[in-house]
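Reopening this one. Same input as before:
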Amino acid sequence: MSTVTVTVPATTANIGPGFDCLGAALTLYNQFQFTEQSDADTDLNITVTGTEAHRVSRDRSNLLYQAFTHLYHHLNKTPPKIAIEIKLGVPLARGLGSSATAIVGGLVGANELAGQPLSTAEIMELAIALEGHPDNVVPALLGNCQLSVGEPENWEICQIPWHSDIIPVVAIPDFELSTEEARAVLPKTLPYGDAIFNVARMGLLIRGLETGNGQWLTKAMADQLHQPYRKGLIEGYEFVQASALKAGAYGMVISGAGPTLLALTSPEQIQAVETAMKNAWTQLEIVADVRSLSIDKQGAKVNSN
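Same output, byte for byte:
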């Protein structure tokens, strides 16, 4: 009986102007254990622990299992009977890449049990195809901050250096925002000037992340492609943003599709920024889990028995 455990980090995507192409892995994790059970009565047995465990499906509709079987079907093989244990550490539907952890975890787990027939690059292609865009699944698989450029089967992946003095602070509210809802508010076309606005700030953001230049980051985290349309879906957005900036944050953006908000700050201002963001939502009678994290350097990690 073979067992494989895959640990996958949460991710924050977009980071302001990097819509659908820039993402970073964070030190917050989901863990998935896969155990082959050739003599089991059923093909699938899923158990889930952790916050919001009751909301995760235990049948074939489970996204982790769908990704797991997708790899076997890609190999033209029959998936084995499997017992899956899920330990949740990444909040669901909060803009921290929970679906990306499931996709990456399922593909990596299947690849291990199948004898590692696919390379990391091939797993990445499958993950992007399943997710529909690369900004979460690529850093979830590879770790660090990653820029993804290209199209199906022709991706260029570039790791973006992230200065150790830039601290990500996430404020995770106790309400949800689905990716579908967040995408529905986006316009079909944009003014030419908005594209120029984002191109300039994307370049500055990359240099700011690399050098730790807070002044550059403050200007670079502005965006015209998605945040102006999505912020209205997040109660208290402008109040939390103003509070974070007043406390010394370089800037604040929507993490992924939201509603989690991401502030970047210096090590000296961590506590002030955390307190300010939490208090802002508290004043609006919204409970939020606010914490400082680090950039995960490893991506998906595998332990086999």
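So the earlier flakiness isn't reproducible anymore. For the record, The CA atoms of residues 50 and 88 lie 5 Å apart.
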